[in-house]
Design a protein that fits this description.
Strand order of the largest sheet: 1-8-5-4-2-3
Number of strands: 8
Distance between the termini: 41 Å
Radius of gyration: 20 Å
Number of helices: 13
Largest sheet: 6 strands, parallel
Mean pLDDT: 92
Order of helices and strands: EHEHEHEHEEEEHHHHHHHHH
Structural class: alpha/beta
Oligomer: single chain
């Protein structure tokens, strides 16, 4: 169940009841003897905002808990440590509170805790890609930023340092059993965090919109989310306490998660995985730096290939439709949309890839890895190496 709106954090007792019910159902399926579901691993980010209040709700519900903090974006070593903590504590459920990194880390820990073998056995692209044999522990997800939409997706993005790449652990059972999206939890975030996470949310609405895997359902999510993100993102960065803008961004992030889970992403995220694995740059910042260039190169490529291909023609029309959605002007077109996103990134002081520490001497390696990324399958068309190179150069 998804609870959305200001003040929904206070509905944690009801959410915990759902989690206990989900845990009991899982324990019957895989014959574990977990009992009443009275032990929870709380996974949080580096900030401990809201932890005291959360723990008071958990204690009042008669659930014992221990906290496992995640500093930065999760990698295999961190997840393995979290799994060890969860097993030693005999955790029967996981409560995730924080940004996308905390939620992804929590979902990965919940998935791997009941399953044998290292995380690499279950990772796509660089791992064995094995399916989970046992259902994950049930998760209550509480995002405190508006960006990834991880609270409603079936995957967790993990860094694999030895491969210098980020890839997903993916299973339908990883979708959180209960979700609380309280926009008030995002009030007064620093503008830089709001900008990077907000641009990620916008990206995760635009890419499913132009994806060849889009459906009428995902179209509805994107049509609703894109205008909200476009109008609210500048506001939350200039006035961190604007609750109406925070509501719009929280909903846009949630809708983006629902859209990408059903229509895939594209070249922005195809690049973001390898770049994030190779260099110490935050995921949201990478996506923000890439989005205008990916939109520009995709639109140019679609224009050159337009003709009798219905997939290309549909994607081109979808880029044209971005103009009114992003600009709030019914006469705006795709070029206006691209200009709007580029201007927005500039106004939000989004740094380029070079300022994020990406080494341009490794462009060939980035391109090679990006071509194998799963997100590239959702791009509206296959891009050639020279087009991928141009995206990186425009994003510097």
């Amino acid at each position: 169940m998804i609870r959305f709106g200001n003040g929904t954090f206070s509905q944690i007792p009801s959410a915990l009841s759902e989690l206990r019910a989900a845990q009991r159902a899982v324990s019957v399926v895989d014959e574990r003897t977990a009992g009443e579901g009275c032990r929870a691993l709380i996974v949080c980010g580096s900030s401990r905002r809201f932890i005291d209040e959360l723990e008071s709700y958990v204690e009042a519900a008669g659930i014992d808990s221990t906290v496992f903090p995640i500093s930065g974006e999760p990698d295999l070593g961190l997840v393995d440590r979290g799994v060890q903590v969860a097993r030693e504590f005999s955790a029967e459920m996981v409560i995730a509170i924080g940004g996308g990194s905390a939620l992804d880390g929590a979902k990965a820990i919940a998935a791997l805790c009941p399953n044998e073998g290292p995380a690499l056995d279950y990772l796509e692209v660089v791992g064995a890609g094995k399916p989970l044999k046992r259902p994950p522990l049930p998760v209550l997800a509480i995002p405190t930023t508006s960006g990834t939409g991880s609270e409603v997706t079936k995957n967790a993005v993990l860094s694999v340092p030895e491969k210098q790449v980020k890839v997903s652990l993916r299973d339908p059972g990883m979708i959180p059993a209960s979700v609380i999206v309280d926009p008030a939890l995002t009030l007064n975030l620093p503008p830089a965090i709001s900008a990077a996470t907000g641009m990620d949310a916008l990206t995760q609405l635009i890419e499913p919109w132009v994806s060849p895997m889009a459906t009428p359902m995902t179209d509805g999510f994107c049509r609703e989310g894109i205008p909200r993100a476009a109008r609210a993102l500048p506001k939350v960065c200039t006035d961190p306490g604007d609750i109406e803008a925070r509501e719009d961004m929280a909903l846009a992030s949630l809708l983006g998660g629902l859209a990408l889970a059903n229509a895939k992403l594209g070249a922005v995220h195809g690049f973001a995985g390898p770049i994030g694995g190779m260099f110490p740059a935050a995921h949201g910042s990478i996506c923000a730096a890439l989005l205008p260039a990916v939109m520009e190169v995709n639109f140019e490529a679609l224009n050159r290939q337009t003709g009798n291909d219905p997939i290309i023609n549909t994607a081109l029309q979808r880029y044209l439709a971005l103009g009114p959605m992003l600009c709030g002007n019914p006469s705006a077109d795709a070029k206006d949309a691209i200009d709007m996103v580029r201007t927005l990134a500039g106004n939000l002081n989004i740094p380029g890839l070079g300022a994020l520490g990406v080494d341009n001497r490794r462009i060939d390696e980035i391109i090679s890895k990006a071509k194998g990324a799963s997100s590239m399958k959702g791009n509206p068309l296959a891009l050639e190496d020279d087009q991928l190179r141009r995206i990186l150069e425009l994003s510097w």
